[in-house]
Amino acid sequence: MKNIKNAQSDLVNDTCSDCGSYADIGAVIDEHDTQLVVSFTGDAAQAEAEAMSAKAKERFEEIKTEIKSENSEVTLLLNFAFSAEKMIFQLENGI
After folding, report:
1. Is residue 53 located within the same domain as residue 80?
2. In total, how many domains does the chain have?
3. Tens of pLDDT along 4-19?
4. Tell me: the pLDDT tens digits for 62-71?
């Protein structure tokens, strides 16, 4: 633990002071993980997918969305410009 802290730049501290865990942020957040797939079922599935698509478009300018229907399942594909946007959207919407 001490060696890890000593090896870090003074500008970076990615070691938890409470538990001593070291976190490599690049290992936690994949910069290429920009697609979110959300499935809906039931009578309101199409409307729910459209509402979530509209919410994402309102929040993020460069998002691309696609809605696919197959049998009784509606799938919403959300393609964000950045992985951080995907994470923010998931947190804001409890996904």
Report:
1. yes
2. 2
3. 556 655 555 555 666 6
4. 999 999 999 9
